[in-house]
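Researcher: Structure prediction, please.
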Amino acid sequence: MWKDFKEFAFQGNVFDLAVAVVIGAAFGKIVSSLVENIITPIIGIISGGIDFSGMHKTIGKADITYGMFIQSIIDFLIIAFVIFLVIRFMAKFKRKEEIIEEVEVKSSEELLLTEIRDLLKEQQAK
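Model: Predicted structure follows.
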């Protein structure tokens, strides 16, 4: 049993997952800071400073804070949109890298084979 656990715990996938969790947590803090400190205040200025978090309804002794729920939905939508933009930007950057890799110079063997192919096509066309 110990051997099975050791194989599981020390294989690459577990460490990759641990690194992904740590990086994800750090990225989450960056996105949260961007939303809370930059985007939300800008939206507040544009919308006239509407703050839904203070909205509530008291029914009997229960205080229903539905404004916090609305604010959470708005925060989620903003965060999801920011993450979408970041991923889209990263995908464009990655595509540019792939295009650069495709443009790389062909090896001498590939060049020779391409020339032979072209010569054979010319001979067949005549």
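Model: The CA atoms of residues 84 and 90 lie 10 Å apart.
Researcher: Thanks, that helps.
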